């Protein structure tokens, strides 16, 4: 998928959301003038790393539960105002 960067002179190409990806596989490609690309890259890397961390943690919790239900109480310690919503989204 290729998306135009709002107000900037470049584009971002990414694998579709929800698709599993593996180590050393390209996930995103930013094409833009260097300054614009670095600004966008910083935001994307921050967001992607957090979502990946949260999804991995949720998967490990489900695996450790061995079929039992689990509850999320992450809102108490989640980073940012919407951190708990992001965690819930990444875990589903």
TrEMBL record:
EC number: 6.3.4.21
Molecular function GO labels: glycosyltransferase activity; nicotinate phosphoribosyltransferase activity
Reaction catalysis annotation: 5-phospho-alpha-D-ribose 1-diphosphate + nicotinate + ATP + H2O = nicotinate beta-D-ribonucleotide + ADP + phosphate + diphosphate
Swiss-Prot/TrEMBL keywords: Glycosyltransferase, Ligase, Phosphoprotein, Pyridine nucleotide biosynthesis, Transferase
Pathway(s) annotated for this protein in UniProt: Cofactor biosynthesis; NAD(+) biosynthesis; nicotinate D-ribonucleotide from nicotinate: step 1/1
The keyword Isomerase belongs to this UniProt entry's keyword annotation: no
Recorded superkingdom: Eukaryota
GO cellular component, one term: cytosol
BP terms from Gene Ontology: NAD+ biosynthetic process via the salvage pathway
Enzyme class: ligase
Record protein name field: nicotinate phosphoribosyltransferase
Organism taxonomic ancestry: Eukaryota, Metazoa, Porifera, Demospongiae, Heteroscleromorpha
């Amino acid at each position: 998928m290729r998306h135009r960067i709002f107000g900037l002179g470049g584009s971002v190409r990414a694998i579709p959301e929800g698709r599993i990806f593996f180590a050393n596989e390209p996930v995103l490609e930013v094409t833009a003038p260097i300054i614009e690309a670095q600004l966008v890259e910083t935001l994307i890397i921050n967001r992607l790393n957090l979502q990946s961390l949260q999804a991995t943690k949720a998967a490990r919790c489900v695996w450790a539960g061995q079929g039992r239900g689990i509850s999320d109480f992450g809102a108490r310690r989640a980073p940012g105002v919407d951190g708990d919503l992001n965690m819930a989204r990444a875990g589903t």
